[in-house]
Structure formats: structure tokens, C-alpha cells
User: What shape does this take?
Amino acid sequence: MGKPTGFLEFTREYPQKKSVEERLKHYKEFVDLFPEEQLNNQAARCMDCGIPFCHSGCPLGNVIPEFNDAVYRKDYKEAYEILTSTNNFPEFTGRICPAPCESACVLGINQPPVAIEEIEKHIIEIAFEKGFVKGKEPNMRSGKKVAVIGSGPAGLAASAQLNYAGHSVTVFERDEQPGGLLRYGIPDFKLEKWVVDRRIAVMQEEGVEFKCLANVGVNININDILRQYDAIILAGGSTKPRDLSAPGRELKGVHFAMDFLKQNNKRVAGKKSVLADADEKVIESNMLTEEVLATGKNVVVIGGGDTGSDCVGTSNRHGATSVTQFELLPMPPKDRTELMPWPTYPMLLKTTTSHEEGANRHWSIATKEFIGDGNGNLKALKVVDLEWATPAPGQPAKFVEVAGSERELPCDLVLLAMGFVHPQHEGVLDQLGLEYDNRGNVKASESNYKTSIKKIFAAGDMRRGQSLVVWAISEGRECARSVDEYLTGSSLLEKKGQSLLMSFE
Assistant: This one.
């Protein structure tokens, strides 16, 4: 697709980024768009590879060579139509997806892969600019009502698809504005919130109703929803953070990463108060009763994933004295090994833009104790280096502490970014008496997304466990199709790997 010889003529290029000094002064996105010629050159690199493994690499099953070809031909309307046939929100995935499709790109065997994520972002931004994106209500309504609990990427995708199918959709969100993780978990320097607002406005124009400060199971009775709606989708995400039960955990200065990030996002949004009061605490989640700032502090982020990276970038913008990031596991390799064959997604060393802005990174290190100053405040961490043994096939990896490596590191603020264990059980899930799987997630089959209770479905991280935004969107779309089949007996909604747009050509 694209230009037959494009991959021989052009190399992979990246958009210009603002300097570190400039971008640390604000929370706005700092990656520029390609000029048109450069965009077309990047699309031209998509080769006629015969079997586009990028399809299987993408959790959404995006029809990637076809939209690259349309971009190369400068037919941006066609590119937009192809892209949105499988992805409701390319403006999100084009900014924050780790792009597993690129890891599966055939060109990536011996060259830098096609810049699929950037091309995707450019398609949707051009589409908005040219007026291709328009809210369109369905021609007919089915008379069926669906309640979606949670307005993160899974809930939004399910809502959009079911609305297209003609059902009346109401989204219940316990926070003040819709968006879930997109609004409250991801910093503005990666995803500005006008991008989320723009999409919500389109969905409202199409007929989706949003009810905020509506915490089902707390200030909204789940029995009322069961009576009033024909189907319910649970899309509340995986919100129970993994804790670190070391001595001194109760000291002031130790916080969960998502609490820190959420508070800062509300601060950036201009909310008068970012603290929880007695009433808000009942309705909102992950709210702190004290303001947490990294300004002038030695910050340690425990956890090496994207959330940890977001804490690094946010702490640097606060003006932290130092930022250090710990990872329990060994340092990943920079290139694929024989254990990471193409086209699988490789676990390689990832240096994010936040790391570029300044961070001391340490691997194979464990925290043994939080040390206080005698007045209840954190002053240091007791850490130890680890030595990992190569595991036998089928056996878990094991580590031992390196003798003599135990030491104390000065620290005023610790942010725990070690992932999430499962969704919050207290409230609506326990009230419903739903069955959980062995990891504590809502038990629902990937084939139909049905829970143990009739007419209740689950999608996204609440069902599969913590994952990627692109996987949440995929689950929301597939769950919507299952709900549509449940309500009507069949569904014309697109199924992964089965694009209606392409089948009618």
C-alpha cells in the first residue's frame, strides 16, 4: 500500500517536539503535527507486504495498510472513514497508545516500522479540521434503554456503538465530568482535556446522555437502574491499586500514583479546590484530603510502567528537587532477543518523553522500609538491590537480595505506581452479588461479555484486568455488539476482524 518503493526512499521520521526547558513550564501537549509532505512520505513507507501483521498486532483490528494508502493519496476523508470503521476514538489512541501494531509491522523486521500511531493521529485531526466529524443521530430508535456505568474508554466505546445501533444510552459517571482515566488519570501533557471534551460533545450531539456525580451503588440505587434499563454494562475500570506493605507505609508522604495524578489533573483543569470534602468523598473516587505537591522534594516513583512515567513528568513540572524511578524487575533489553521474536510485542527498554525531562532510573531494586523523621513524616527509604536468576522453562522468575547492598535514600515523597489488582468491589459490584474471577475481576466471557446476572455485561479493565486504553476501546466495541444481539437477536455492529465497510466494497 502507499508508494511501492516508499519504504526504500524514506526513513521513519518523528514530529518536532518542544524543548525540555519549554515544555516543563506548562501542561500542554508538546508534539507538533507533520507538514503534509512529511505525512505523505511516512504513509508511503507502508509496503505491499502481502500479509499485514499489523492487523493482528492492533487490539482493534484497524485496517492499517488501507488508511495509509488513502493518506498517501491525500484522500483524508476515505482515510477517516476506514480508520473510524474500527476505532471510535483515534484521537486518544493516536496520542497514548504504545502502538503494538508497529511492533508487528513487516517493515520492522529490519527497518524502523511505519509510524502508524502518528499517521492515525493526523487522520483524525485533519478530519476534525475539515469538518468530516459530525454528530449523527440514528435514523431510528429501538425503544431499548442501556445503562453504561463508567465513562472511561471502554464505557465510551460501548456507548457510542450502542447509540449507533439505535438504542437509548445513558452513561453514569461518579466524577464531575466524563472521561474516566482519559480525563483524570492521564496528564494533560500527553492528552489535553479539550480533546476529550470535543469527543464527548460529538457523542452528546448523537444522542448519548451523560449523568455525572452519579455513583451507582452510593447515591444512585442499582435496583432503580435494573428496573429502568433493558441492559447494563459495567465499565468502571480496574481501580484498586497495588499497595506496598512495608514498615512505615502509614507515614505522611506516601501516596498512590493515581491519587497524585488525579489531583493534579483537577488542578490543571482549574478546579477551585482539588481536595475532597465530606460530601465529595462519598461521590468521587481516589480523592485526597490534603494537597500533594512534588515542589522542592526528593521524589521516588515505585513502578516502571506508564503511570510511573506520568508521575515523573508531573513531578518535574512541579519543580521537584530530584525524581527517581524504581523498578523491581531487571532492566529490559534495548533490542529484541530470541525470546521476543517478531511479530510479538517485545518487552524492550522504553524511554518516554517524561524520562527525557529528567529522572534517575534504577532496576532490580526493592523497598524494604519507609523511614520517618520521628514526627510522622517520610524522610528516607531503605532499599536493597536484587539479583534475578534465569528461570527454568515454565517456572516463575526468582530473585535474591544482593548482600551488602542495603542502604538508605533521602526521600520526601513516594508515589506508588505498581499497577492495579482489580476493580473496586465495595458498592455496586458487591451489591449486585456478581461472580468474580480468580484475580478479583468481574467474571464475564470474552465471547459474549455476559456476567453471572442476566442483562448485566462487563467490559474493559473491570473484566480483563488492568490493560491498555486501546484494549478498553476494543472491549467496549465488542461488548456493545453482544448487548445489541441480546436486545434484538442480531447485530449489524462491526465485529473485530469483520469490517462492514470493507465487506461491501
Notes: The two ends are 17 Å apart (CA to CA). The first strand starts at residue 145 and ends at 149. Residues 450 and 457 are 5 Å apart (CA to CA). The chain has 21 helices and 16 strands.
